[in-house]
Amino acid sequence: MATQTIAGNPTTKKKLVRRLVSDNSQQIRRTVQAVFAALNVWLGIQFILWVRYCEQGGAGLNVPRPAGAEGWLPIAGMMNAKYFFLTGHVPAIHPAAMVLFLAFVLMSLFLKKAFCSWLCPVGTFSEYLWKIGSRIFGRNLRLPKWADISLRGLKYLLLGLFVFVIGTMSSEAILDFMSTPYGLIADVKMLNFFRDIGQTAAIVIGLLVLLSMLVKNFWCRYACPYGALMGIASLLSPTKIRRDAEACIDCGKCSKACPSGLSVDKLVQIRTVECTACMTCVAVCPAQDALQFALPPRNAATPAQRWRRRALSPMAFAAVLAFLFFGLVIVAKTTGHWQTNLPRAAYMNLVSHAKEAAHPGM
Ligand code: SF4
Ligand code: SF4
């Protein structure tokens, strides 16, 4: 149907072919986020109980050390991954940190930055913060383009710093670092940082929480070096958000809904490192086969034929995530590459003297 624009230019309004089945990606994503957050809470409680048991010289609830807590040691994960690729040996100290790091990188290689919007507890927390902020303040702020682009560089700067330091370390240097008291209980040091948090750190965290309420995904978008790394890996992902120009009615709902502020309705595929594969855009799209998280389309005449067996359903998406995550964890556990095999007595001695374990570089 030909219509007139306000400026008088003739345009063609496309006919909407409504979706046959309503989208459930956000329900599935929120369920995955909740399960992963609960898993982290469980690991956190177990880890605190274990630390207290060691600190009290064997008094209190005797629980095993949860190696999964090493997921919160991304730098150890990167260092150990380098050690593994240099030597071909799985490191004996904090192997779980490496296994989890590699699982998250693999996810990014196949499913864009899905780790950030489907699994990462900080990402989940950030998402709820901006939603709460939007309710309190009526809307979220959008930074001017120049500020947004400059701030986005910050996370790459931080990542570059870590990559530079780790890049200069030999396998022997990594092993030496991990074998120091600090390296052995890096997870306990991290916990103690939050237990004995200083005034400056508390103010910075408070400020980040406030900014995350005002600006969508402030931490993830501007400051998270882990997300920056996942974004770079995600450039290789064969699956992406892809728009079918024929099926699309140019309503612009996808762009309006995108938490990363991407111009989804203007592109045929979303390559950018900023796409977290959250599928919010897909959820709001009203047109059948117009927007999907998919492999490249088939060369066919109709949208339905183009995306047949190319689009990934939200359930299949969650299944691939679960396969990569649990697959690697199970392989690591069954091959004995999950736990740091340090005797309990050694841990008790190290944890009870954690204050004296200084960073080797300091
Ligand atoms: S383009 Fe879609 S999947 Fe990517 S961040 Fe925006 S809403 Fe999420
Ligand atoms: S939501 Fe986006 S992809 Fe879907 S019809 Fe509207 S403009 Fe096209």
Tell me what you see in this structure.
This protein is mainly alpha-helical and 362 residues long. The protein has helices spanning 25-55, 74-87, 95-111, 114-119, 121-137, 145-167, 171-179, 181-184, 186-195, 199-214, 218-223, 225-234, 253-257, 280-284, 303-307, 314-334, 344-352; strands spanning 2-4, 10-12, 240-243, 291-294. The strands form two sheets. Strands 1-2 form a two-stranded antiparallel sheet. It has a two-stranded antiparallel sheet with strand order 3-4. Helix 1 (25-55) packs across helix 17 (344-352), helix 2 (74-87) packs across helix 3 and helix 3 (95-111) runs antiparallel to helix 16. Residues 1-10 have low confidence and may be disordered. Bound molecules: iron/sulfur cluster (2 copies). One iron/sulfur cluster binds next to helix 13.
List its salient traits.
single chain; mainly alpha; binds iron/sulfur cluster; 17 helices; 57% helix; 4% strand; two-stranded antiparallel sheet; globular; 362 residues; disordered N terminus
